[in-house]
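Re: the multi-chain job from yesterday

Posting the exact lines I submitted so nobody has to dig through the queue logs.
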Amino acid sequence: MITYLPLRISKPLGFLLTITTYLLQGCSQKQSAETAKPPVSDFMYQYSIIDALLAGVFDGNLTLGQLKTKGDFGIGTFNRVDGELIVDQGNVYKIRYDGSIQEVPDTDSTSIAFVKFFKADSTFIIKNITLDELEKKLLAVLPANEMYAIRMKGHFEKLTSRAPGAARKPYPSLKDHLAKQQHLFNLSNTDGVVAGFLLPGYIAKVNVPGFHFHYLANDHKSGGHIFDFTATELTVEIDKIQGYTVELNTHADFDKVGLEKDRQEELKKIE
Amino acid sequence: MITYLPLRISKPLGFLLTITTYLLQGCSQKQSAETAKPPVSDFMYQYSIIDALLAGVFDGNLTLGQLKTKGDFGIGTFNRVDGELIVDQGNVYKIRYDGSIQEVPDTDSTSIAFVKFFKADSTFIIKNITLDELEKKLLAVLPANEMYAIRMKGHFEKLTSRAPGAARKPYPSLKDHLAKQQHLFNLSNTDGVVAGFLLPGYIAKVNVPGFHFHYLANDHKSGGHIFDFTATELTVEIDKIQGYTVELNTHADFDKVGLEKDRQEELKKIE
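And the result, structure tokens for all chains:
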């Protein structure tokens, strides 16, 4: 269900009440509609886990062709951390370290990606807002234990993003790789689409809690992992997620890194 | 694929080498067979998350009839934490606080459950072993970042388990509930089946890292969440898991509990 709210909102309270009302309507109507079809369609799918990427598992065996069967919208990266990945309307794009954009062949692979079949439960338009302000408004109205896919289109007076260059073996940690191979882009007056997620704290180690957004300019000349923006006009679409599927990375490197901590610690809580 | 290893193993080294060989054979053969069918069949499915149960979300909206469509093997509990849940060969059983066993109607609901369509990759028989000894042997040979469903059948000289009584509203935390409503069973010379999982540390907050087993006696007269056992003969079946699906608890209580911590903390690691 898509609900358009083409009002010009200036008062924060009005914003909060309106988005709350529309989200609740969207979610309740959606849940009743869900009963007629397989629930998996409203789930996020992800290949590999963020802690593996952080530990240097930079290769995976999932092709982009396979990824597209799991969702038409999302974010991630490519093997060797060769740029930022964004999926919008079923197309996969690579934002390279030099800021250029490529459509990517289905035969290329990803080391980590998070996708969903995007279907907005709520849509609203907001003007003159920074990313930080928008995030605070969304956190104030969206239940903290739920998961959301968020798609935004608009005009950005300023937008700061990055993309990494590809790593070479032996792979370092992601932090060390980004320290040397992260290229920053300071964009001005750019029109484009933002894809990403708002995820809860309990998904830590597997995905990124909080907001995580990638950008693709409409002219396909810039993009990247978003650090900050100021938007003059923004259409925000929010899609509440019913759950998620994690497919473990089948590359041999996945079993070689040390992810394991506190095994058995959790069990003590229920004994 | 089921591989039977009916040897009498006495030396630890022999045990380790043999299980390693059989597991590797099982997994490689399984992966090539998986390509012909949807990969979801080899995934664990879970309804709700462990941190919600710990925080007192003791009700859920998933019926046992729905749960059975997600797997024929697994563990969990029922609404109100009314006993321990075990699924084996497609049947759902309740181990009540008084130690009695019930088959449960499909219309009952669960607040949390973890299930899979069980298909052993490896099977071995081992004699005269405690749970602690068995877990140490398995941890020594199974890659720590992977996930496993584990089914065991045998004769237990001793087995200690528990089952909780149902909670009443307002629900306390699980820890507080178990402190008052946990009933211990010290079983002797019992034959039955153990169902459970070995899960990695990164699944913390969502599920229970490490080993987690429930028991059902063959005569359906005892069972429960296992604390310890000594087995005289045990057939151990291990099923490597490709990934997992988490369906968020749709009960209204899920949005009311405070699970949220360290939002945005993780994002800092990749910026």
